[in-house]
Design brief:
Urease, subunit C, domain 1, 2 domains, globular, 17 strands, alpha/beta, 16 helices, TIM Barrel, nine-stranded mixed beta sheet, binds zinc ion, binds the ligand CSC[C@H]1O[C@@H](n2cnc3c(O)ncnc32)[C@H](O)[C@@H]1O, four-stranded parallel beta sheet
């Protein structure tokens, strides 16, 4: 499939921020084939998009999500993490069927695509249905099969191997399967060691929650004599690629470990604010050369999956909390929310608008009162833009939304199916 986008402005921000006005962008299969002031003569497009008044940028990678939790949106609001999980969420999750997982995932994916997300890093149970929904939606996904308990039983291992076999690497690597032990406080030491062995056997990445609350940090010190980060490090986790959600309660040694071992720190500012878990020291992780990405967490602790909001909040809270307006600059936030997602997928040529890069990109409608006048495009995107400004979404060279209309998800049918299963 060849797509031609005419007269579009593009933003590139790998290093310096660069804007190119009114160019032609050609997409062939999953990649950006050319960016040019003139159309390539031998490029016979199958489909054309008018890019006038639109800005093309890389799509968002929502780096920590629990897709089916849209069906639990607003459950247990105004409680702490442990109260929320054990008294409100876990009891309801026990009753979730495969249908809840599939349609709940699809609902979240619809919301995500509408707000410009092109890649996700998820973890949930009954993950085969999450994988199916992600595959069907066309999004790029790293999908964690979530597990927890005292003993990693044979049936759990079988489930993981089966899902991995069925989905890992399909559609040219668009879908990847990870192993997701929930957290140190819901998994025994033996369970975590066995999960690590399984990840090594499958050559899979690991996605888990680390150091989210002070309660978890204190529990770790009391039970194991070390911080949660050090605990995972001593188990050998960081020899593999680990995607660590939250990373809020960290000491200086933890920050050095996370940065040295190239752990991908998944920052979830809204969830951390709503559950009052604390403020992750991302400016220190960033300054010490660590990898920081941004995620919404599940939409029951947020309560939406809009990455524009997440960027805005990331920038504001760290400035405010540290009383330093120079911290976490708009350019850094934009990279954390988009480009840094490439580390999750292990794909070097993604996260910028360049020839030869993955065609995971979005068009923003810049002709909006709240984006006028446009003196500083990066600040405009981080501080002023809204999810509803997203006009078109392309992933792996396939159009998932055009002019605000979803192409891979039938919303009316989806609402109908959801009404059936929740009634
Ligand atoms: C077993 S699937 C994932 C599991 O995680 C739960 N969850 C959602 N948000 C959080 C969070 O912020 N910290 C810890 N656990 C969380 C979710 O409800 C699922 O049970
Ligand atoms: Zn989470």
């Amino acid at each position: 499939m060849k797509i031609l986008i005419r007269n579009v402005d593009i933003i590139q921000y790998d290093e310096e921020v660069k804007i190119q006005k009114s160019v032609f962008v050609g997409i062939e299969n999953d990649q950006i084939k050319f960016i040019s002031k003139n159309i390539l003569e031998n490029f016979a497009a199958d489909y054309e998009i008018d890019g006038k008044d639109k800005l093309m940028m890389p799509g968002f990678v929502n780096s920590h999500t629990h897709l089916p939790m849209s069906l639990l949106r607003n459950v247990g609001s105004d409680t702490s993490l442990m109260d929320w999980l054990y008294n409100h969420i876990f009891p309801r999750e026990k009753n979730m069927s495969n249908q809840h997982i599939y349609y709940g995932s699809l609902l979240t994916l619809a919301e995500m695509i509408k707000c410009g997300t092109t890649g996700i890093n998820d973890m949930y149970f009954l993950a085969e249905d999450v994988c199916k929904a992600a595959y069907d939606s066309g999004i790029r996904g790293s999908l964690g099969v979530s597990i927890n308990g005292d003993v990693l039983k044979d049936d759990m291992k079988r489930e993981i191997r089966d899902i991995h076999q069925k989905y890992n690497g399909i559609d040219g690597g668009r879908i990847q399967v990870a192993i997701a032990p929930h957290a140190m406080y819901t998994c025994s030491r033996e369970f975590l060691i066995d999960s690590l062995h399984l990840a090594k056997e499958l050559n899979a990445n690991i996605h888990t929650h680390i150091a989210e609350t002070k309660t978890e940090y204190d529990y770790s010190i009391e039970k194991y004599g070390v911080s949660p980060v050090k605990y995972f490090d001593e188990l050998g986790y960081f020899d593999l690629k680990v995607m660590a959600a939250h990373c809020v309660h960290l000491n200086d040694e933890d920050i050095k470990i996370l940065s040295d071992k190239k752990v991908i720190c998944l920052h979830n500012p809204t969830s951390n604010l709503k559950l009052a878990s604390g403020f992750s020291p991302i400016q220190k992780i960033h300054a010490s050369g660590g990898i920081v990405t941004i995620g919404t967490d599940g939409c029951a602790s947020n309560n939406n999956v809009n990455m524009f909001e997440e960027m805005h909040i990331t920038s504001l809270i760290h400035k405010g909390y540290n009383m330093d307006p120079t911290l976490i600059k708009a350019h850094d936030v934009l990279k954390m929310a988009t480009q840094n997602g490439k580390h999750i997928f292990g794909i070097d040529n993604m996260g910028d608008i360049k020839e030869g890069y993955k065609a995971d990109l979005i068009l923003i409608d810049m002709k909006k009162p709240h984006l006028y006048p446009n003196f500083d495009t990066v600040s405009n995107l981080v501080y002023s833009a809204q999810g509803s400004d997203v006009d078109t979404v392309i992933v792996n060279g396939k159009i998932l939304m055009e002019k605000g209309e979803l192409k891979t998800i039938d919303l009316e049918k989806l609402y109908f199916e959801i009404d059936k299963i929740i009634s």
